[in-house]
UniProtKB/TrEMBL annotation:
PANTHER family: ELECTRON TRANSPORT PROTEIN (PTHR30224), ELECTRON TRANSPORT PROTEIN YCCM-RELATED (PTHR30224:SF4). Residues 164-377 form the Sigma-54 factor interaction domain. Its main location: membrane. The keyword Thylakoid does not apply. Residues 15-134 form the Cyclic nucleotide-binding domain. It comes from the Bacteria. Residues 621-651 form the 4Fe-4S ferredoxin-type domain. The chain crosses the membrane at residues 424-443, 463-487, 508-525, 537-557, 668-687, 699-724, 736-756, 785-809, 821-839. This is Cyclic nucleotide-binding domain-containing protein. It is found in: Cell membrane. InterPro entries: 4Fe4S_Fe-S-bd, 4Fe4S_Fe_S_CS, AAA_lid_NorR, cNMP-bd_dom, cNMP-bd_dom_sf, NosR_regulator, P-loop_NTPase, RmlC-like_jellyroll. Keywords: ATP-binding, Cell membrane, Iron, Iron-sulfur, Membrane, Metal-binding, Nucleotide-binding, Transmembrane, Transmembrane helix.
Amino acid sequence: MTSPNTVIWLRERTTLGILSSMVLDAIAQTLEEQVVPANSTLVSEATHPEALYIVQDGQLESETTNQNSSALARGFLPGAVINLQELLLDELTPCKIVTLTESHVWVIPTAKFRDLISQYPEINQAFSRQLAQELAQVTSALTYEQERSVALRPYLVTKAQRGIVGTSRYAVRLREQIRGAATDRKSVEIFGEPGLEKDNIATLIHFSSPKRREPIIKINCGILQTSGADLFGRAGGKPGLLEWLGEGSLILNNIQELPPELLQPVAQLLQTNTYTPVSRPGEPAATPRTSKARILLVSEKTESKIERCVGHIIKVPPLRVRKADIKAQVEYYTSLYVRSRGLKKPHITPEALRRLQSYDFPGNLKELKNLVERAIVQAGERRELTEEIFWAAEPKKKQFRVNLLNLYPGLRRFLRSSWWPDKINYGFTVVAFAFIVGVLFLGPQTRDRNFALNLFWAWWWPLILLIFPFFGRVWCAVCPFMIYGEITQKLSLWLFPRQLKRWPREQAEKWGGWFLFGLFTLIFLWEELWHLENTAYLSACLLLLITSGAMIFSALFERRFWCRYLCPIGGMNGLFAKLSMTELRAQQGICSATCTTYQCYKGGPEKGEGMETDGCPLYSHPAQLEDNRDCVLCMTCLKACPHRSVEFNLRPPGIELWTTHVPRNYEVALLFLLLGGIYIHRLPELLDRLGLQIDLTRFWLHLGISIIALLMPSAIILSSYWLIKIFNTRRKPRRLIELAYGYLPLVLGGNFAHYLRLGLGESGKIIPVTFATFGLSGEQLPILVAHPAVIAFLQGATLIFAVLLTIVLTQKIARQPLTTLIWQHLTAMILGISMWTIIVL
């Protein structure tokens, strides 16, 4: 290479380019070319430099034994000038330099370079100025970094606490969302319930991104100045956190606490990446600035004005829907705690894990962590974390409940056996029902001579009403109507193989309750106008009509569509079952954490201790039941469950009515109808007490009076609610649809008091009546009937108890002062007194 070309190369490719052409020409004249083989040492560490080297071609690398100066280890490419600073400042070489490939270098021996320095003072002056500029830049950068560190230190997040623990679909999806948000620089909003460590998720996004080496800070929105000066800085004054942050990440924690004045500036920052420093009063508005920081928002609920501006939205699922992850979370928190304190890791028992999985954790992960740490402390030297240690993890739905299946293993065995209810249904009920209907049609037509009619009115009605407070809808498990419905379903599928129709759930939920309400209204009117209580063949027709409905709808739809939505007796049973002191439920935690097949709901083959079943006949999942309305206690779920999740609990009667209950219009209408049914059953006594002389043999007049009797209690209740609203101007009363359920004990008690007359006065005559049914004389056979005074006493006691329970239940449902509901309580008393006059007196 000629000298002019060498000068051009030195000016364009090396740091010597700051020198004048004359000096560069002098340097070019002294250059000596040298070829250095690969893996050769060009410069030794801690020695006086032998020459100035300029790399023309090849690759070189430095090595150092100084562990505190890793920055000295670097590579050298063509154009690099080696030993320049050491020769100018007369220093020792800081590191060893070796060739990685065969390299061509220009060499100026030390003596010649010193001569050049003496001959051309410009060399020293130029590089001294450059070193001074570099030093000033380094000092300025160091000062800036120190100020930046001081400004950011109170808010700095050094690392993520942990990753996403668990293998559930929620955990997998959350990891995918974090990875997706980490790939770009868009803002992210992370929202969810308290205790979900949402700020840790924001930290995970930052440390998974390409800008992980930049700082990340977290600031609680509740402590931000309303002016925004600490976030945006002041015009011509102190910089804000956004300016100090540079390309780092900012976590705005608890965005719901953001001062309203900052909503618009934050929305602008998210939308345009610009912000305006705060100006002092009287000063012109500052020029907007661009922010390179990434904004991560953490909140308990979304803010609509901000939500529209963010790039990613991550909803963190609460722990109660991630029950499958609880085991992994417990293991993680246990390991974390014992490792930090040098303890032996205890084992958590399956019972304890089930208790945790059945708890809803309102405090989510933070509450679970505290429970685990407290349990380890309480366990002490024990190697197991047992169920009783987690005493705080008792779900509200489990409070005041006792699982009878655990107390009485024999009960579990019976309910899981083939006896309940299949052998009872198909071995006895199906035959007995056909026989009773036949006797009703062919036998004598009056109650004193037909044992089937006596069984229906004097035995079945009092007993079924007596069963409701104890076992809810248990009658539906052995109900003959649906047994014949199931037989029809099986026969029709055998004769005409096809796919049964799926349930029209939406229409059934909307209209099914009103359909059964209409049927029950017709039954009441039919019973009163045609005297069904004392007419055997008409009672048989009533039974056959309900059975035919079950058979028709069973032939059309799968499972027990009629039972769930359309059966009038089932509707009454479901309503009164709400007062039951027992319930069938499942442990939600086990169902959501362990179960993947849902055999109790869908049916399926034998699995573990779970038997082969066709699934719940009413399409109810026991873990999702909020009341007893849709459970017939057939125990299919108990037989199908392989996880021992199903429970048969003893509980406070009717507790769901003031805890988890969901009111429905058609249920309230049916409740009022059943209340009116008490008065229509006692229509002659009612007219007598009112002093009305009406000829009930006239059909249309009888029909009109019967309808008025059905509607009269409803009118009284509506009037009392109208008075409640008028006289309570300060406190708004609860809706009638909620308060109406308070009358449920009165409705049940009134109907039971009515049928007590038949139950205690005629059911004991069953033996002679049976003989009379078949044309035999039964006059000398024993009978067992109660004295009229005893019957009256029990009827009166039932009504008094029902009124008191109505008042108590109404207070529990309303949760309002007694004075607010005084009109409803007076109405209950008035209705109770009226029932007393027509039933007892």
